[in-house]
Amino acid sequence: MNIFIVHSWPWRLYENGGIEVTKTILVNALTLIRVPLSVMFCAEVLHNSSPFLPCAVLFLLIGTSDYLDGKLARKFGAQTDIGAIMDVMTDLFFIVAACLSLSFRNLFPLWMLVVILSKFLEFWVTSLIFNRSDKNTIIFLFDPFGRIVAVLFYLLPILMLLLPLCLPDVAHRGALVMVCIGITGLTILSSTWRISSVVNCKFSARDSFNFAKIYKNYLSAKEIGENRR
Predict the structure, then answer these.
(1) Are residues 81 and 172 in the same domain?
(2) Any residues with CB less than 8 A from the CB of 86 and at least 6 apart, and which?
């Protein structure tokens, strides 16, 4: 009986005939599965008259994928720049595709999509600048406000489906606008923080997003100023 042992990437064949998928491929596959799940989410929004329940199930699967790929990447030591980019891009794909689908049913304001895309562009550019200036190996850097904004962006599609079920038509549209305005305010705060950090260049990329260090530096500078007086 011939036994084949193939060590070439990405598959490894062993004598028992099984296939071992490399850890990096497994994590990336878990990330990419969000793309077809996102397409299914959009299809339910567009073609189902009562899309909340199936969309809630799909949203749960998408969120689970987003949680597990990062956790497994850290556990397996399979964190890569490509994986980080894929993670952010699949998240963006879900958010943009879902919001566009909802806008076709008049459940989401298109101006909010402009806010989301603008924030993503700013996030990408400032991360590149920080990485270049601070020589970091991390592709993307998250500020505290930005993490909150990212979670809210992620929750927006399912929230837009939930509001019409909980509130009458006029009230749910008012609540929708208020939610979007609140998220836009946090988005502006996050972008202002990041851009001002780039312009001032007073702290390293990591320190500029660390409130404790900034406050400590502020107190030190204040103490030095008082001593000089």
Answers:
(1) no
(2) 28, 31, 32
